[in-house]
Q: What sequence folds into this?
């Protein structure tokens, strides 16, 4: 996530002249989080109540101590008499009452501590779980261009690190903030009711504490936003390097990558240093502010006790209570530190959730079994973001059940065309229809279920061979998996693997050769049994023998389905019903293999280059 650029004083007027919209002011991250967690408001309220009650009973022992001191010093307790009506009996009875109250208070404090700990921790786990699933589900719905402009490591930092940071705050920090607020309120009320003459001494530090907290929060927020930004860049670097480890080794760039990582890690460390330098100053400042209240209570409360205006027990209790403010308020620095980290993470996670989905699903259902497979592109234009059109005013009709091939030089738009059919990208203008229906009107998942795509960049998941073939076909039997593998000419090599179909392929299928991965991808598409099959350089990584075997099985694979084959190796598509030659985003020529050779055009030139045969 990039930092917001602060423009100079002249920039806003310039931007306004250009008609740039003013930046949208987002709600406070805490309000955004509360809005997201509406389903858990009842649990939040119950957890908050338990935290307040726990703190109330945690602050009760000084009252017991004050009452006991009055009983010993004055043979009666003004505290007990203040809270009760009538005579409670002799001093021994009062001590028995105090002892019983002590047991009750300690038990209730422990009970509410157990309750709030469970409630807050369960709440943290629930929100963390929901956020991670919602964020990941949302990411899956984003268009392909979104991922091309961002690093996977940066997204991982949001989906994992930032959500974990929020979970840590909800687990501990939220309760700490409530404890601090409850402590301030309870002690202030106690001073007003029991020692109104010195109540101002308890209130004295509060404005400074609140003002100081707000100031620290204002300056800490951007520093922790920078920290989260730097850790995202660092995660992106690590993810990128781990994925390209073989390339790093082959080009002997280990030292270079260590230095690049060192620079990113140093930037992260320095951003943390800047945040720590400010957050570490919070506790010492708060201690000195609390000292004012403690000293005032000690001095002026002592004067009132000496003058007989306050009992010794009440004075002792007030001194104890003002000290009880010290510990939670000094912990407030650490809690505010957690809070600011969590709010920075909250903004990043919720910003991801607020990212608009550019490619919206249509509403018309599509039954895969009823798809005939006629595809028509009418006046289609497409360009990647901020680039010249790669496909421009393209017209193409693919009859149902036919096998057509698309060839052309690199960058002519062949693979892009396939991605437009799958709606991985959205066309700029024109229309694409499937069986006469605009694909933008179709339910997106139904459209993609009807298309089997074998990409030239095969991705296999960490798991077994069988699981990768059955991916996208839940409930497939082993017999069906084997049959698909046989059609893809993959069964023979699978049988030679250590555990056959139960062999682990490794991350991205790294334990298999390129040709083996490609055959598994073909088997996966065959098992899906789509009415439309797209082979995007599907035989580019196989040897000649395997290519010949796949070619033999193509007749079975393509039977009763529309097949689009994109290829550089023209030998793999010479038997296609129709071959389209693309050049600079347009159809330059088309026809079957023999007709195109006879034209002596682009196709014939490509054929001569690949075969060495002069026509």
A:
């Amino acid at each position: 996530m990039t930092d917001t650029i602060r423009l100079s004083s002249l920039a806003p007027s310039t931007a306004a002249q250009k008609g740039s919209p003013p930046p949208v002011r987002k709600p406070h991250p805490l309000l955004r989080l509360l809005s997201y967690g509406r389903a858990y408001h009842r649990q939040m309220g119950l957890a908050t109540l338990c935290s307040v009650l726990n703190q109330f009973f945690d602050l009760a022992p000084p009252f017991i101590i004050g009452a006991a001191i009055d009983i010993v010093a004055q043979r009666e307790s003004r505290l007990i008499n203040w809270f009760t009506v009538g005579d409670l009996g002799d001093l021994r009875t009062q001590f028995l009452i105090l002892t019983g109250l002590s047991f009750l208070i300690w038990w209730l404090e422990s009970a509410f501590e157990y309750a709030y700990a469970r409630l807050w921790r369960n709440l943290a786990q629930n929100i963390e779980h929901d956020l991670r699933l919602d964020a990941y589900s949302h990411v899956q719905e984003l268009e392909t261009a979104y991922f091309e402009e961002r690093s996977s490591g940066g997204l991982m930092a949001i989906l994992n690190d930032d959500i974990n940071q929020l979970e840590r705050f909800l687990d501990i920090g939220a309760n700490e903030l409530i404890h601090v607020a409850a402590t301030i309120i309870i002690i202030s009320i106690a001073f007003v009711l029991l020692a109104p003459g010195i109540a101002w001494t308890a209130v004295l530090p509060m404005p400074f504490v609140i003002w100081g907290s707000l100031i620290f929060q204002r300056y800490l927020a951007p520093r922790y936003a920078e920290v989260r930004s730097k850790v995202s860049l660092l995660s992106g670097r690590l993810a990128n390097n781990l994925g390209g480890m073989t390339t790093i080794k082959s080009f002997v760039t280990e030292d270079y990558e260590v230095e690049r990582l060192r620079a990113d890690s140093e930037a992260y460390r320095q951003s943390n240093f800047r945040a720590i330098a400010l957050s570490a100053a919070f506790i010492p400042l708060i201690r000195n502010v609390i000292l004012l209240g403690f000293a005032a209570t000690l001095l002026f409360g002592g004067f009132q006790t000496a003058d007989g205006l306050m009992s010794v027990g009440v004075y002792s209790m007030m001194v104890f209570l003002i000290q009880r403010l010290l510990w939670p308020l000094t912990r407030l620095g650490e809690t505010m530190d957690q809070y600011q980290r969590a709010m920075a993470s909250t903004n990043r996670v919720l910003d991801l959730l607020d990212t608009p989905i550019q490619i919206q699903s249509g509403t018309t259902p599509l039954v895969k079994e009823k798809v005939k497979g006629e595809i028509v592109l009418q006046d289609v234009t497409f360009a990647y973001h901020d680039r010249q059109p790669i496909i421009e005013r393209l017209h193409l009709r693919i009859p149902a059940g036919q096998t057509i091939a698309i060839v052309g030089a690199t960058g002519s738009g062949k693979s892009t065309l396939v991605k437009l059919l799958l709606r991985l990208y959205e066309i700029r203008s024109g229309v694409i229809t499937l069986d006469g229906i605009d694909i933008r009107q179709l339910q997106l998942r139904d459209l993609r279920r009807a298309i089997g795509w074998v990409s030239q960049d095969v991705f296999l998941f960490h798991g077994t061979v069988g699981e990768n073939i059955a991916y996208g076909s839940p409930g497939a039997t082993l017999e069906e998996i084997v049959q698909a593998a046989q059609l893809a000419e993959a069964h023979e090599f699978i049988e030679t693997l250590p555990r056959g179909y139960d062999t682990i392929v490794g991350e991205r299928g790294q334990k298999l050769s390129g040709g083996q991965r490609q055959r598994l991808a073909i088997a996966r598409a065959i098992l899906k049994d789509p009415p439309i099959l797209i082979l995007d350089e599907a035989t580019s990584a196989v040897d000649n023998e395997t290519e010949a075997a796949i070619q033999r099985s193509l007749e079975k694979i393509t039977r009763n389905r529309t097949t689009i084959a994109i290829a550089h190796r023209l030998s793999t598509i010479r038997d296609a019903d129709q071959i389209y030659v693309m050049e600079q985003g347009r159809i330059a020529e088309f026809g079957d293999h023999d007709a195109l050779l006879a034209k002596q055009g682009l196709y014939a030139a490509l054929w001569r280059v690949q075969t060495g045969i002069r026509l």
